[in-house]
UniProtKB/TrEMBL annotation:
This is Serine--tRNA ligase. Residues 67-94 form a coiled coil. Keywords: Aminoacyl-tRNA synthetase, ATP-binding, Coiled coil, Cytoplasm, Ligase, Nucleotide-binding, Protein biosynthesis. Pathway: Aminoacyl-tRNA biosynthesis; selenocysteinyl-tRNA(Sec) biosynthesis; L-seryl-tRNA(Sec) from L-serine and tRNA(Sec): step 1/1. ATP binds at residues 261-263, 277-280, 348-351. The keyword Cytoplasm applies. Residues 139-411 form the Aminoacyl-transfer RNA synthetases class-II family profile domain. Its EC number is 6.1.1.11. The keyword Zinc does not apply. The record marks 386 as: Important for serine binding. Catalyzes the attachment of serine to tRNA(Ser). Is also able to aminoacylate tRNA(Sec) with serine, to form the misacylated tRNA L-seryl-tRNA(Sec), which will be further converted into selenocysteinyl-tRNA(Sec).
Length: 429
RNA sequence: GGAGGCUUCGCCUAGUCUGGUCUAUGGCGCCGCACUGCUAAUGCGGUUUGGGUUAACCGCCCAUCCCGGGUUCAAAUCCCGGAGCCUCCGCCA
């Protein structure tokens, strides 16, 4: 959630942000007046309650006629307090529900527009020229099947469309990727974490996934659990309701977990292979920092992503995602898109978001620091970035490093995690 | 699944039986000041969190003793429901 003080003092900035996101600008004014009602009803309650307490203190000291009179007045006040309390609760609830619908205020440098209106910040590496090498690249599924690495037919038989098995060398490849990613993150000082994949509503809500993104989240009705779409959720909620000493910051984690996505509204998109699936594993980086450090941290996360992709020998571009394509929690988002040879375009492999204080306010994660000789508490900033989303990385790897005979060269960084193997060979059918 | 115990302002803790100066005790930690050649030690003071009021500060008011209801003029304290943690039993990877 955003800072209500900012909303009161500079509502135009919030309106502009909503407009840029292509979201309801009227929400800002609805929230302003709901906040007004919340404050006035709360004042009314506070005042009545103060009277009630003052009167209550006199009761035990009085006696006889006087006491009877006090009790009569107190009973009246008691009723008034009760109704003021109910009014206050209702007003607070209304303001809160409006506040939760409001997305983060976007960073001023973010390009305005929809999915196609991103800015390319940088291009790294050169897409491999298969025509010059004289052969037609196979797509990841054909390659994966040849290697005995991917089985989508049985995935569909057992679980339906967008499910798959990683088999044999495919399974080993995932484990190698995950180990290499965790090793890189650990070397950079991040704390490796294995996180829950089922979370309570508060964690999901606080991370910002129950607004517009709600239709993409699996929910277990009977137990009221949500399946996480990323370990960002359990990592953000890890410090929920805590106050962290400024000296402990930054806190950096590398979470590994399965990720579940309903992929609603993507009917017919990326139906072949394992590019877009309902369940996959991912290594995710997550940082808690002081708000003034957030932008520098955002760049840092991006650098670690670039280091990872470059190490895998992939060609990619970095984009500044446009306002209309930002998640509710993000003020700015950088995606790394890797070149997929058979698609002839760059596709998203990683994504780093700066949520500044937005998630921390919702989850009540604060920092305590010494300012001018006084201890102050304020929300901190959270950021997240993909290190390795396994299936998409496999797609890019197989296609990029394939050879004419259907074998695939293993990038050097992965070899130690594949028993020294430097090439994956097709298996006999 | 069954039985019992626990949950208080960063951490530990007093208070709950017997409702009202609980405006929540003490210790640790932390912050400030003093003393000191420096450090340590010591002394004094401060230190829950959130909301409101304020241009801001000071101050003041309200809420907050795991959460939600209830009883009462009045709830940390009594009653009901729930959550989490711990111990034991059962089942189980």
């Amino acid at each position: 959630m955003i800072d209500l003080r900012l909303l009161r003092e500079d509502p135009d900035r919030v309106r502009a942000s909503q407009r840029a996101r292509g979201e309801d600008v009227g929400l800002v004014d609805a929230l302003l007046s709901a906040d007004e009602r919340r404050r006035s009803s709360s004042s009314r309650f506070d005042q009545l309650r103060a009277e009630q307490r003052a009167l209550g203190k006199r009761v035990p000291k009085a006696s006889g006629e006087e006491k009877a009179e006090l009790l009569r007045q107190a009973a009246e006040l008691s009723a008034a307090v009760k109704s003021a309390d109910a009014e206050q609760d209702q007003a607070a609830e209304e303001a809160q529900s409006l506040l939760l619908r409001l997305g983060n205020v976007v960073h001023p440098d973010v390009p305005v527009g929809g999915e196609e209106d991103f800015t390319v910040l940088e291009t790294v590496g050169t897409p491999r020229d298969f025509a010059a090498e004289g052969f037609e690249p196979k797509d990841h599924l054909e390659l994966g099947q040849g290697l005995g690495a991917i089985d989508v037919e049985r995935g569909a038989k057992v679980s339906g469309s967008r499910f798959y098995y990683l088999t044999g060398v495919g399974a080993l490849l995932e484990l190698a990727l995950v180990n290499a990613a965790i090793a890189q993150a650990t070397a950079a000082g991040l704390t490796p974490m294995l996180t829950p994949a089922l979370v309570k509503p508060r964690a999901m809500e606080g991370t910002g996934f129950l607004g517009q993104a709600a239709e993409n989240v699996y929910h277990l009705e009977k137990d009221d659990f949500y399946l996480v779409g990323t370990s960002e959720v359990p990592l953000a909620a890890y410090h929920m309701d805590e106050i962290i000493d400024a000296g402990q910051l930054p806190l950096r984690y590398a979470g590994f977990s399965p990720c579940f996505r309903r992929e609603a509204g993507t009917y017919g998109k990326d139906t072949r292979g394992i590019f877009r699936v309902h369940q996959f594993d991912k290594v995710e980086m997550f940082s808690y920092v002081a708000p003034e450090e957030a932008e520098a941290e955002h760049t840092r996360l991006l650098e670690w992503e670039k280091q990872w992709l470059s190490g895998l020998g992939l060609a990619y571009q970095v984009i500044d995602v446009a306002t209309g394509d930002l998640g509710a929690s993000a003020s700015r988002k950088f995606d790394c898109e890797a070149w997929i040879p058979t698609q002839g375009k760059y596709r998203e492999l990683t994504s780093a978001s700066n949520c500044n204080e937005f998630q921390a306010r919702r989850l009540s994660v604060r920092m305590r620091e010494n300012k001018d000789g006084k201890q102050v508490t304020r929300p901190l900033a959270t950021l997240n970035g993909t290190l390795c989303a396994v299936p998409r990385t496999i797609v890019a790897l197989l296609e990029t490093h394939q050879r004419p005979d259907g074998s695939v060269t293993v990038p050097e960084v992965l070899r130690p995690y594949l028993g020294g193997r430097d090439v994956l060979e097709p298996v006999a059918k």
